[in-house]
Amino acid sequence: MNHFNESVIDVRNVSKCYQIYEKPSDRLKQALYPRIQRIVGTQAGRYFREFWALKDISFSVRPGEAVGIIGRNGSGKSTLLQLICGTLAPTAGEIETNGRIAALLELGSGFNPEFSGRENVYMNGAVLGLSGAEIAERYERIVDFSEIGDFIDQPVKTYSSGMYMRLAFAVQAHIDASIVIIDEALTVGDVFFRQKCYARLNQLREDGAAIILVSHSMPDIEQYCESAILLDHGVMRFIGPSSEAARHYYLVNQPQRVEVEQVIATTADRELIATACEQGVDRPSTQAFLDLTGRSQVGDGRVRCTGVALCDAAGRPCDSFRQGDRALFYAEYELDEDIGVPVCGVLISSDRGTIVHGKNSWQSDIDVPASKGAGSRVQCWQEIVLDLGPGDYVFEVGISSVSPAEWNHRRDISHEQMTGAEVRLCHLVNVGSFSVGLAIRDNVPVLTHHGLANLPGTMRIVTT
After folding, report:
1. Which residues contact 349 (CB under 8 A, 6 or more apart)?
2. What percent of the chain has pLDDT over 90?
3. Burial of 317 (0-12, 13-18, 19+ CB in 10 A)
4. Residue ranges matching CATH 2.70.50.60 in the chain
5. Of 67-76, 215-224, 451-460, which range is least confident?
6. pLDDT, tens only, 412-441
7. Are 72 and 215 a contacting pair, CB within 8 Å?
8. In CATH, what number does 267-446 get?
9. What does the pLDDT read at residue 107?
10. Beta strand pairing status for 9-20 and 49-61?
11. Are β-strands 227-232 and 66-70 bridged in parallel, bridged antiparallel, or unpaired?
12. pTM for the model
């Protein structure tokens, strides 16, 4: 990261100090008294204390590189970004940037709440250096990306925080910037839009833009950034590979002990779920079913998905889990025509669209009902241990069918042959979402592994 001659961002020995006054009168004293004291020849007093938000920070970023900036609240992350953007001046050191900067430092910054979204797009684009013709050429793409529809002609003050972020990001992502800076902005809005944002950031990187990403989500930093900078009380504690930076982050941020309510499923609960998984006859409670309104079902029309639910290990509605928790995915389908042997499955993706797990009943090698006739209902329970990295995830469900003969010989044919034999009947993409947080051990949050998934394995250490 020290190729200064190739970099688009150069930060050299930068420090930032603020003067902190205990009361307003001290600010007035500092403005007047030192001058008077110098005139009369006495030693000038100081009526403030210094707060160093950043101390001697140096790094560089090259075109097409993604760098994460991590640290707990108050570590100096936002101050550093403002210095890079030029909205603050350093107390010491120097910063050099090359090219146009697109920055989301604060939600909706640069928007006039009284103006419509359309007016703000043109105004914001002009502030960022685009001509009227350039903004007009990009306008439809910006609106389509933001997904706010007719609200584009409504005053921005009527927008939700998610709509603010969508439009702000859409503008910044379409100005052909050399440097794109994101400060936690992608934490606002739903997981589906975040997938879209990360896809756009990847495209910008391929086009040569440098990305600076500030986030408290270590999975995001590890997966998206090659390198990362760890700040702690204004000091750069680590700079290097993002996976190593994440490890140092957890060491610096030793978790505080927390009180949690641990809900343990009873034996009866577990027996009920086991029966449901084996027999597929128990439906979740009504509260567990997701709203499928507006969800498109891709298929040939012979099968309709009539319900999807997500539950915890005790069968309760749940969309917030901890590492290692068991989740129960339920889907049911109504048959309008006869089908072969049903094959059901669930696929889980990260908020950036990376598939982390997908498995169907053929891969699970379970006993399934024979061919089903019109008017029948197919129910599928799939229990999955969420040994995933902390973060947000989306899932999709689907059903296909194969002939009884093909099913009976499933162990004798290749995956490609079985996939080719499947008839896709009904598929719902991004039907639901859930989050995974740190595991809890002895009332303390614990990171069980690094990366997206915790792979099964054993470890042994011997000393001699």
Report:
1. 195, 355, 356, 393, 394, 395, 396
2. 42
3. middle
4. 267-446
5. 215-224
6. 877 677 777 788 899 998 899 999 988 888
7. no
8. 2.70.50.60
9. 54
10. antiparallel
11. parallel
12. 0.62
Residue 1 confidence (pLDDT) above 50: no
Residue 273 pLDDT > 80, yes or no? no
| pLDDT tens digits along 365-401 | 777 777 678 889 999 999 999 999 988 999 999 999 9
pLDDT at position 135 is 93
**Residue positions counted in the chain:** 464
> Helices 161-172 and 132-146 meet at what angle, rounded to 10?
140
Judge contact between 376 and 304, C-beta under 8 A.
Answer: no
Of 333 and 352, which is predicted with more confidence? 333
Look at residue 112 and tell me whether its pLDDT is greater than 50: yes
CATH 3.40.50.300 segments of the chain:
63-252
Using CA atoms in the order 100, 102, 105, 111, what is the torsion angle rounded to 10 degrees? 110
102, pLDDT greater than 70: yes
Establish how many alpha carbons lie within 13 A of residue 387's alpha carbon, considering only the half-sphere containing its beta carbon.
Answer: 8
Topology, domain 63-252: Rossmann fold (3.40.50)
Q: What would the 3-class secondary structure string for the chain be?
A: CCCHHHCCEEEEEEEEEEEECCCHHHHHHHHHHHHHHHHHCCCCCCCCEEEEEEEEEEEEECCCCEEEEECCCCCCHHHHHHHHHCCCCCCEEEEEECCCEEEECCCCCCCCCCCEHHHHHHHHHHHCCCCHHHHHHHHHHHHHHHCCHHHHHCEHHHCCHHHHHHHHHHHHCCCCCCEEEEECHHHCCCHHHHHHHHHHHHHHHHCCCEEEEECCCHHHHHHHCCEEEEEECCEEEEEEEHHHHHHHHHHHCCCCCCCCCCCCCCHHHHHHHHHHHHHCCCCCCHHHECCCCCCCCEECCCEEEEEEEEECCCCCECCEEECCCEEEEEEEEEECCCECEEEEEEEEEECCCCEEEEEEHHHHCCCCCCCECCCCEEEEEEEEECCECCEEEEEEEEEEEECHHHHHCHHHCCHHHHHHHCEEEEEEEEEEEEEEECEEECCEEECCCCCCECCCCCCCCCCC
Buried b (16+ CB within 10 A) or exposed e, 224-253: bbebbbbbbebebbbbeebbbbbbbbeebb
Q: What is the pLDDT of residue 269?
A: 36
